[in-house]
Design a protein that fits this description.
- This protein is an alpha/beta fold and 764 residues long.
- It folds into four domains: 165 residues, EF-hand (Recoverin, domain 1), CATH 1.10.238; 160 residues, no CATH class; 93 residues, Elongation Factor Tu (Ef-tu), domain 3, CATH 2.40.30; 138 residues, Nucleotide-binding domain of ferredoxin-NADP reductase (FNR) module (Rossmann fold, 3-Layer(aba) Sandwich).
- Helix content is 48%, strand content 12%.
- The chain contains 29 helices and 18 strands.
- The protein has a six-stranded antiparallel beta sheet with strand order 8-7-10-5-6-9.
- Strand 14, helix 26 and strand 15 form a beta-alpha-beta unit.
- Helix 7 packs across helix 27.
- The longest helix has 34 residues.
- The radius of gyration is 33 Å and the shape is globular.
- One of its GO terms (molecular function) is calcium ion binding.
- It holds the Pfam family Ferric_reduct.
- It comes from Dryobates pubescens.
- It is a multi-pass membrane protein.
Length: 764
C-alpha cells in the first residue's frame, strides 16, 4: 500500500513521464501510454487506456490522465470498486451490434478469442458499459490474469476457476454479475477491500524498484547475537597479530624500515615467517565438519569459513607488500649510508647481513608473486565467466608457497608443523576416498529450468547428516574439476544418493547438455541400474512415496559415466534438529538441503508411528529426543514460476499426507509456497484470479498451481508479517535457515535481527 505522500510522489512521476513521451501535441496514444506507465503490452493496458480516454478521441491528454488517476487515488470506495467493475465488463456497451470489443465463445464454453481493439468503456460521466459481467467476459479476464501472472493451466482448469468465481458472485443466479453482487463478493475478502480502500494507485504503479532491506543497526543486542562468532574470531585474530607485531618491535632497533620488515614477518598472516598458515586451515573442511559436533562449533564462525579465508588472504597480501616494502626501504638506506655500493648491489647480491635477491629475499619474492596471482585469479569475474580452471590451477600453487616459505624463514616450520599435519591427513583421507573406485550414476532425470537430477550409487561406508554436501567429479565432463553440491536425499535412503544440480555455470551446463544427447540406444537397463531402481521403488512404496518420476535417461545410454565424490561436509543445516522452532527458507534450487531434512523427518514419522490393533487409529509419538529437539518447523519455498515447483512436488505431497494423519497437538510442519511471477492480490490485474484460486482451493482442498493442499501465495513474502506470525506462536527459540541468493539473504538477515531470531545461511 501507498501513503498519501507516496501517492502524490507517484502522480508527479506520472506527470514527468507523460511530458517526456507526449511530445508537442500533449496527447498520447495507446503505445505511448504503455511506455509512459511501463506496463506490459496486455489486455489490461488497453482496458486502462479505454477507461482514461473519456472523450473517445483515441488519445489521452494530461488532463484526462491526471483526472482519472486522482479519482482512483482520492475517490471513495465506491468509485474504486466501480473502476474495477468497468475493467471486467469487457463488452463495452449496451448495444451489442456496436461493440468494439468482440468476445467469441466456442460451444464448449470460454474458448473466447479477443479482437484487440479499444472498447468503448468510460469512467463515470462517459458512456456506460453493459452494466453486468457475463460468464464469457469473466473467462476472458481470467485468461489474461493467468498470462499476466505467468501461470499455465489446462483449459478445463480455467473453466473451473471461472465457474467457481461466477457461482460465488452471482447471488441471484441470474446468469450475470452486477456491480452490487461484485461488491458483496469482494467484501468477503477483507484484504482485497483494504487494498482497494487505502490506495488504488498501487494498481497502476510502475514496476517496483529493487526491494530495499532496512539496514541493520550495528552494536545492537540482536546484531551481536547473530554475529558473535565472527566478531570473536576477528577480534582474536587481530589481537594475535598485534601481540606478535609488538613482540617483534621489542626485538629490533627503533628504525622504521628495520623494525617494520621483521615485524610484519612475525604476524600470523604474513607469507614471510607466518606462525600459522591460517588461510589454508580455514579450508580444511573435514576438520571443520568434525568441529561442528563439538562445543567449539557453536562458538567459532564455521558457517563463514570461506569468507574468513578470503579476508585472511587479503590480509596476507597486504602484510606481504608491507614486509617487502620495508626491506626495500632498508636496502635504500644502507646504500645511501655505504656510498660505495648501489641499491642494485643490495638487491641482487647474497649478502648474509642484509639478505637480497641472492639470499633470503630471493626466496621471499616468488611466494609473494604466487600469492598475488592466486588473489587475482580467484575473483568472481574469473571463476564465474567460464575460466574455473585458471582459478583452480593457480590456487594449487599454495604448495610452492609453503615450500619457498620453509626455505625463506628458518623458523617458519615451527608454525607450520601442526596445521601442516592436519592438512596432510585431510588430503590423504580425500585421496583414499577417490582411489577407492568410481561410483556409478544409476539414473538421470532432466527437470524443468535446466536442473539435472543425478541418482548415484551410495557406498556402504558413506555416512552423512541431512543437509550435508559433497564434492563431485565426473571425468566425462571435466577430468580435474570438483564442484560442491548439496545431497537432496535423506540419510535413511541406503542404496542411492540424490543430487539436484541447477545449470548456472560452464560445468553445470556441460553436465546438462551431456545427458541431453543419448549416446546410444539400449533396450534394457543395466543390471545394477535395474536392481537399484527396483529396490528404490520398493522402499518408496514402504514409506508411501510414489516412484513415478520424469522419464529417466538411464536407458538411453550404453553406460552412464562414473563419478567420484569427496565428503560429506557439514553445513549450518546440521543445527536444525537441535532447534526448537526452525524456519527453513529455500529460494529456487535452494530447497535441496531442506529436501533432505524434510525427507529425514518423514522417515522418523514412519519409524515412530503407532496404531491401535482394535480400532486401527494411528498416531505418531513425540519426535523430540536427544538428537532432535524440534517443536515446530515452518518451511518456506520461493519460486519464480510454476515449473520450478515440479522438482519436489511429490515429496511435499507426501509430507502433507503425513501431516493430515497426525494433528492432535497442532501442525508440526507447516509449508508456505510463494510464486514471485504471480501478481499479488493488491494488484488489480490479479484480484479476480486470486479470488477464483482461493474459492476453488477451498472447494477442492487442493491448490490449482501445485496440486498441494497448501495454497500457493502470489508475489514475494512480506517478511515482517511472516516473522511476526512466527514470533506470536511462541514455540521456542526461533532459528532461521536460508539457502538462496545473497541479495535475499540480506533482507531476511535484517528481519531476523529485528525480531531477535538466529540466522544461518548456506555457504560453500
Amino acid at each position: 500500500t501507498m501513503s498519501v505522500g507516496e501517492d502524490a510522489e507517484w502522480l508527479r512521476w506520472v506527470t514527468k513521464q507523460f511530458g517526456s513521451i507526449a511530445g508537442q501535441d500533449k496527447e498520447i496514444n495507446l503505445e505511448e501510454f504503455r511506455t509512459a506507465l511501463q506496463v506490459k503490452e496486455s489486455f489490461f493496458a488497453e482496458r486502462f487506456f479505454a477507461l482514461f480516454d473519456t472523450d473517445g478521441s483515441g488519445t489521452i491528454s494530461l488532463e484526462e490522465l491526471l483526472k482519472a488517476l486522482s479519482l482512483l487515488v482520492h475517490g471513495t470506495e465506491m468509485d474504486k470498486l466501480r473502476f474495477l467493475f468497468q475493467v471486467y465488463d469487457v463488452d463495452g456497451g449496451s448495444d451489442c451490434t456496436d461493440q468494439r470489443w468482440k468476445v467469441k465463445v466456442a460451444p464448449g464454453g470460454c474458448e473466447g478469442a479477443v479482437v484487440h481493439q479499444v472498447p468503448a468503456l468510460r469512467l463515470p460521466g462517459a458512456r456506460a458499459g453493459s452494466g453486468c459481467i457475463e460468464p464469457e467476459e469473466l473467462c476472458v479476464v481470467l485468461r489474461w490474469c493467468l498470462r499476466e501472472s505467468a501461470i499455465a493451466l489446462p483449459e478445463q482448469r480455467l473453466r473451473d476457476l471461472t465457474l467457481a468465481l461466477f457461482e460465488a458472485a452471482d447471488k441471484d443466479h441470474s446468469g450475470s454479475i452486477t456491480f452490487e453482487e461484485l461488491k458483496e463478493e469482494l467484501e468477503a475478502f477483507p484484504e482485497v477491500m483494504e487494498n482497494l480502500t487505502i490506495s488504488a494507485a498501487s494498481w497502476l504503479k510502475p514496476p517496483a524498484a529493487a526491494e530495499r532491506s532496512r539496514r541493520p543497526r550495528r552494536l545492537t543486542r540482536a546484531y551481536w547475537h547473530n554475529h558473535r562468532g565472527t566478531l570473536a574470531f576477528l577480534g582474536g585474530y587481530t589481537s594475535l597479530n598485534l601481540l606478535l607485531f609488538s613482540l617483534a618491535l621489542q626485538l629490533h632497533p627503533p628504525s622504521t624500515s628495520l623494525t617494520l620488515a621483521p615485524s610484519t614477518s612475525s604476524c600470523p598472516s604474513s607469507p614471510a615467517l607466518a606462525p600459522l598458515p591460517l588461510p589454508e586451515v580455514l579450508m580444511l573442511r573435514r576438520c571443520l565438519t568434525w568441529l561442528r559436533a563439538t562445543p567449539l562449533g557453536k562458538a567459532l564462525p564455521l558457517d563463514q569459513h570461506v569468507a574468513c579465508h578470503q579476508l585472511v588472504g587479503y590480509v596476507v597480501l597486504v602484510l606481504a607488500a608491507a614486509h617487502t616494502g620495508a626491506h626495500l626501504a632498508n636496502f635504500s638506506r644502507l646504500a645511501q649510508q655505504d656510498g660505495r655500493r648501489a641499491l642494485a648491489h643490495y638487491l641482487f647480491s647474497a649478502l648474509p647481513e642484509v639478505g637480497g635477491l641472492g639470499g633470503a629475499s630471493q626466496r621471499g619474492g616468488p611466494p609473494q608473486g604466487l600469492l598475488a596471482a592466486m588473489l587475482a585469479f580467484s575473483s568472481p569475474c574469473v571463476r564465474r565467466s567460464g575460466h574455473f580452471e585458471v582459478f583452480y590451477w593457480t590456487h594449487l600453487s599454495y604448495i610452492s608457497v609453503w615450500t619457498l616459505l620453509l626455505l625463506h624463514g628458518p623458523h617458519f616450520w615451527k608454525w607450520f608443523v601442526v596445521p601442516g599435519c592436519l592438512f596432510v591427513l585431510e588430503k590423504v583421507q580425500g585421496l583414499a576416498w577417490r582411489r577407492a573406485g568410481g561410483l556409478r550414476i544409476v539414473e538421470v532425470n532432466l527437470l524443468p529450468s535446466k536442473v539435472t537430477h543425478l541418482v548415484i550409487e551410495r557406498p556402504q561406508s558413506f555416512h552423512y547428516k541431512p543437509g550435508d554436501y559433497i564434492y563431485l567429479n565426473i571425468p566425462a565432463i571435466a577430468t580435474y574439476e570438483w564442484h560442491p553440491f548439496t545431497i537432496s536425499s535423506a540419510p535413511e535412503q541406503q542404496e542411492t544418493l540424490w543430487l539436484h544440480i541447477r545449470s548456472l555455470g560452464q560445468w553445470t551446463n556441460k553436465l546438462y547438455e551431456y545427458f541431453q544427447e543419448p549416446k546410444c540406444p539400449s533396450p534394457e537397463p543395466k543390471p545394477l541400474s535395474r536392481s537399484l531402481r527396483e529396490k528404490r521403488g520398493q522402499r518408496w512404496a514402504q514409506v508411501g512415496l510414489s516412484s513415478e518420476r520424469s522419464p529417466s535417461l538411464a536407458d538411453c545410454f550404453c553406460g552412464l559415466p562414473q563419478c567420484y565424490i569427496d565428503g560429506p561436509y557439514g553445513t549450518p543445516a546440521r543445527r536444525i534438529f537441535g532447534s526448537e522452532h526452525a524456519v527453513l527458507i529455500g529460494a529456487g534450487i535452494g530447497i535441496t538441503p531442506f529436501a533432505s531434512i524434510l525427507q529425514s523427518i518423514m522417515y522418523r514419522y514412519r519409524r515412530r508411528k503407532q496404531s491401535c490393533p482394535s480400532c486401527h487409529y494411528s498416531w505418531c509419538e513425540d519426535l523430540r529426543d536427544e538428537e532432535m529437539m524440534l517443536r515446530k518447523v515452518d518451511f518456506i519455498w520461493i519460486n519464480r514460476d510454476q515449473k520450478h515447483f515440479e522438482w519436489f512436488v511429490s515429496l511435499l505431497t507426501k509430507l502433507e499426507m503425513e501431516q493430515a494423519e497426525q494433528e492432535p497437538g497442532g501442525r508440526f510442519l507447516e509449508m508456505h509456497m510463494y510464486m514471485t511471477s504471480a501478481l499479488s492480490k493488491n494488484d488489480m490485474k490479479a484480484i479476480g484470479l486470486q479470488m477464483a484460486l482461493d474459492l476453488l482451493a477451498t472447494k477442492e482442498q487442493k491448490d490449482s498451481i501445485t496440486g498441494l493442499r497448501t495454497r500457493t501465495q502470489p508475489g514475494r513474502p512480506d517478511w515482517s508479517k511472516v516473522f511476526g506470525k512466527v514470533a506470536e506462536e511462541k514455540r521456542g527459540k526461533v532459528q532461521v535457515f536460508f539457502c538462496g541468493s545473497p541479495a535475499l539473504a540480506k533482507v531476511i538477515r535484517a528481519q531476523c535481527e529485528r525480531f531477535g531470531f538466529r540466522f544461518f545461511k548456506e555457504h560453500f
